[in-house]
Design a protein that fits this description.
Blueprint lengths: L2 E5 L2 E3 L5 E8 L7 E7 L6 E6 L5 E3 L7 E6 L4 E6 L8 E8 L3 E3 L3 E5 L2
Length: about 110
């Protein structure tokens, strides 16, 4: 059974930082493309970042230079380091694993507010 479990969300002030984690089980983690998506209230779900098995990364324009995606294949875990957070980053953040199909985590809430 495949599981993706996100953690690290919470409430942070504008300009602050958070680091999300996604612990994967039930897949051969090292060969899967890992990603983060987000969905803000009343908006469509959007891609935030992806990282390939080789470590190549891709980011949405809105987060370039502020967010960093990474992975630790030994720990079967993907990360999203979020710096210089803005109120518009407020959303539920979802971890994904893509290979022959795409799996989704349950999501973790990130709220950026003073």
């Amino acid at each position: 059974q495949v599981q993706l479990v996100e953690s690290g969300g919470g409430l942070v002030q504008p300009g602050g930082s958070l680091k999300l984690s996604c612990a994967a089980s039930g897949i051969r983690f090292s060969i899967w493309v890992m990603g983060w998506y987000r969905q803000a209230p009343g908006k469509q779900r959007e891609l935030v970042a992806t990282i390939s098995p080789s470590g190549s990364t891709n980011y949405a324009d809105s987060v370039k230079g502020r967010f960093t995606i990474s992975r630790d294949n030994a720990k079967n875990t993907a990360y999203l380091q979020m710096n210089s957070l803005k109120p518009e980053d407020t959303a539920v953040y979802y971890c994904t694993a893509r290979f022959t199909t795409t799996y989704w985590g349950q999501g973790t809430q990130v709220t950026v507010s003073s």
